[in-house]
Design a protein that fits this description.
Elements: H1 5-22, E1 31-35, E2 38-42, H2 48-63, E3 75-79, H3 83-89, E4 97-100, E5 105-112, E6 117-119, E7 127-129, H4 130-147, H5 151-154, H6 157-168, H7 175-183, H8 191-207, H9 211-214
Parallel strand pairs: 2-3, 3-5
Antiparallel strand pairs: 1-2, 4-5, 5-6, 6-7
Helix pairs in contact: 2-4, 4-6, 6-8
């Protein structure tokens, strides 16, 4: 039986509604530049030399991981934290960035290429370096490729996020931030990342840098 016009319209509506999550560029990012295997879309002009330096830094951090492939190029979408971010982030508005696992697209919150930073709106730990966020998000794709998609449900947050902060060589909270939080008996969403990174670093230092052993129980 041929589909009815109603079914066709419903299908088209579903396609339109989901297309930004498969291909974020349909949200009409006005600027686009290629940097080797990395492709960058932005809402504002992209300072080419600065962006190239950021990606060089990020890719150097990624390359130090034994999980890294020869080519870890990604499609990267930089937003100003406005409507494009709200559409693409869904309920993750407080994140610095997120990765669409289907194509490993990286979607960034409020981005400032000239400053080399990404902002998530938090009063404490609300800024990270763009190079660090790129490295962190690329690392999540490396985890999924190496350990399988199920790792995102079998491995704990401290491990998944801690290893990616370890690869990124930074966390959003400083030692002083964490000391103050603990002294005041307060929690913070980024504590799991900070503490996970330290825990990962200690385990890898003890096991000779064996990442497979790090994830072996999960």
């Amino acid at each position: 039986m041929s589909p009815s016009w109603r079914q066709i319209l419903i299908g088209l509506a579903a396609l339109v509604a989901t297309s930004p999550f498969v291909a974020p560029e349909v949200l009409a990012f006005p600027y686009h530049e290629d940097f080797g295997s990395d492709r960058v879309w932005s809402e504002v002009p992209i300072p080419r030399d600065v962006m190239a330096s950021i990606l060089h830094d990020a890719n150097a951090r990624v390359a130090r991981s034994p999980l890294a492939a020869r080519n870890e190029g990604r499609r990267i979408f930089l937003t100003d934290g406005g409507w494009r971010w709200r559409v693409l982030a869904l309920n993750n508005h407080g994140s610095f960035a997120l990765t669409r696992a289907a194509r490993e697209d990286l979607i960034f919150n409020r981005s400032d290429v000239l400053a080399g930073t990404v902002e998530n709106g938090s009063e404490l730990g609300g800024f990270r370096t763009m190079a660090g966020v790129v490295a962190h998000e690329k690392c999540h794709g490396m985890e999924r490729r190496h350990f399988g998609l199920t790792v995102v449900v079998t491995a704990p947050t401290w491990l998944l996020e801690g290893y990616c902060d370890y690869v990124a060589q930074e966390s959003s909270l400083s030692d002083a931030d964490v000391a103050r939080l603990k002294a005041e008996g307060k929690s913070h969403p980024a504590l799991a990342y900070y503490e996970g990174r330290r825990r990962v670093a200690a385990i890898l230092a003890a096991n000779g840098g064996n990442v497979d052993a790090l994830f072996a129980d999960y």
